[in-house]
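Our working data are protein records whose layout never changes between entries. Getting from the letters to the tokens is the skill we practise here. To make this concrete, we reproduce a full record directly below:
***
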Amino acid sequence: MIDWARIRNRDTRPFFQIIRYGVVGVSATLIDVAIFAGLSQWVWPAIDPELGNQVRADRSTINSAIAFFIANIYTYIINHKFVFVPGRHRPSVEFFIFVGVSALSLLLGLWAMRYLINVYSVPTYSAKGVAIAVSILINYVCRRFLVFKT
């Protein structure tokens, strides 16, 4: 029988923490991609290959930064409440480290996205997928070992 209380407990083994982190990550990614897609379709178009690689790369960067800001606040709140155990740092320090780690992963992901669009003419959404993958890897490791207590 599944022990749901144990799975929901933030003090459980890393396996369950990774599952919770994955659920939060999927929901945050959906928020990020929905905002990115909406902005890329209607506000600062970035999808049409006829725009040219440089324009797509520039607009994708702007759209990603806006989506990141909104999704990052959501992610912090949910990770703080349901995934990791806070307490390694004071709450204000914890938040700033969390944002710093997220910003680092965003910058590396944006670099990868721009590079793939400009150098290899990769479609915008494929390049965004690579940026998300880079971000996931960096964020989990840093949040687990630098930001939160466990």
